[in-house]
Design brief:
Layout lengths: L12 E2 L1 H16 L7 E7 L2 E7 L2 H10 L3 E2 L6 E6 L1 H7 L3 E2 L6 H10 L2 E3 L7 E6 L4 E6 L15 H10 L3 E4 L1 E5 L2 E5 L7 H10 L9 E6 L3 E5 L4 E4 H5 L2 H6 L10 E4 L12 E12 L6 E4 L2 H11 L8 H14 L2 E6 L3 H13 L7 E2 L7
Parallel strand pairs: 1-6, 3-5, 5-9, 12-17, 17-19
Antiparallel strand pairs: 2-3, 2-4, 7-8, 8-9, 10-13, 11-12, 13-14, 14-17, 15-16, 18-19, 18-20
Helix pairs in contact: 6-11, 9-10
């Protein structure tokens, strides 16, 4: 293992094999520790049973508060250590010599070692998971080293691995539902997913999430909630007048969006799980009346290429296979949006209530309530 050091200006440079050896040493050390000496949370999240172990109380609170989780007794299937600063120094925290190891080569070495690991594109952050021991590690030089998106989707990489073990998928997607049936929306950032989710909530629909959700395929396709927060920019909030006023005092995040729990403004907007009946691609179209029309699955897959399949380098094949099966099971639609958020929400409410008609719908064919 690299020698402990507080001098982060000269981290040890390791090749792929050296990284594997170091990760094994860290896992051996943490497996023998008593996590009750640190800050621990036992939670159930999207069907996963997790013990989260932190060395930073403020980070622990921000992570757990963000999650759609309920507390459990001490017995959990997986353990994830979220460690920073002093603890990271004690464990060494090397840098990977990327010129000696491509993402594909690194993933091959990790797989042979019985682990999962993120190819470290950013110095000062390591994320890995021992499949057999069911122990995950997020080790960072400091809290400031964490990427900005970590504040909106904590432990995204580890949740991806744990869900993948259950043949499920962490997806960059939004959801809406009514009376125990729902739809999933895909699209790149700015496509209108969050605004459409809020539009749906404002007319009485439910959601399992507006940014990241867990998707699964069993007898039915389903979405499970991961994070209990929605995000929208000021212009999007302005299309829902009461939200514009009620969120005016809130700060925006790094992407210029207000983050809030919609429970503050709506009656029980979140559900833990939604059976899915359709896939929808929102599209900013500025139409007077929104329109839902059937599209071919390949149009959705093209959107998934940028919004989902490239988020986990060297792991494209499993994602392609999962989404191909999802699109084989569910009909695909494009939603050409109106600037009128209420109209968008009403159309989706009518669409779900009607049982996802394959011919699509326009607002004139729907109903108000």
């Amino acid at each position: 293992m690299p020698k402990p050091t507080e001098d982060y200006s000269l981290p040890q440079l390791v090749n792929g094999a050296g990284a594997i050896e170091w990760m094994r040493d860290v896992l051996d050390l943490l497996a023998g520790t008593n996590p009750t000496a640190w800050i621990t949370h036992h939670i159930s999240l999207a069907g996963l049973s997790l013990q989260l172990v932190f060395d930073d109380a403020e980070l622990a609170k921000s992570y757990v508060d963000m999650m759609s989780a309920c507390e459990l007794d001490a017995s959990c299937q997986h353990r994830v250590f979220v460690l920073t600063a002093k603890r990271s120094a004690a464990l060494g925290l090397p840098n990977l010599n990327r010129s000696s190891c491509s993402p594909e080569q690194f993933q091959s070495l990790v797989k042979s070692a019985g682990m999962r690991a993120a190819y470290p594109f950013q110095d000062g952050i390591w994320k890995f998971y021992d499949i057999q021991r069911k122990i995950g590690v997020q080790l960072t030089k400091s809290r400031q080293t964490l990427p900005l998106w970590d504040a909106t989707a904590p432990l995204r990489q580890h949740l991806h691995w744990l869900l993948d073990e259950k043949d499920q998928r962490l997806a960059h997607a939004a959801t809406l539902g009514l009376d125990g049936k729902g739809l999933v929306m895909f699209g790149a950032g700015g496509a209108g997913k969050s605004g459409t989710t809020l539009a749906g909530i404002s007319v009485g629909l439910k959601t399992a999430g507006d940014d990241y959700v867990a998707l699964g395929i069993d007898d039915t396709c389903f979405a499970r909630s991961l994070f209990r927060v929605v995000k929208q920019d000021r212009s999007g909030l302005a299309r829902i007048p009461h939200l514009k006023q009620q969120t005016a005092h809130m700060d925006v995040n790094w992407r210029g969006k207000v983050m809030f729990d919609p429970d503050e403004f709506y009656a029980e907007p979140f559900v833990g799980e939604l059976p899915l009946g359709a896939v929808v691609l929102p599209s900013i179209a500025h139409l007077a009346e929104p329109v839902l029309q059937r599209v071919k699955p390949r149009e959705v897959m093209l959107a998934l290429m940028t919004s989902n399949l490239h988020q986990f380098p060297a792991e494209h094949d499993r994602g392609m296979s999962f989404y191909a099966e999802l699109l084989r099971r569910l009909p695909s639609f494009r939603l050409d949006l109106s600037p009128d958020a209420e109209k968008n929400g009403r159309l989706l409410k009518a669409f779900i209530a009607a049982g996802f008609p394959l011919e699509g719908m326009t607002l004139s064919a729907s109903f108000a309530d």
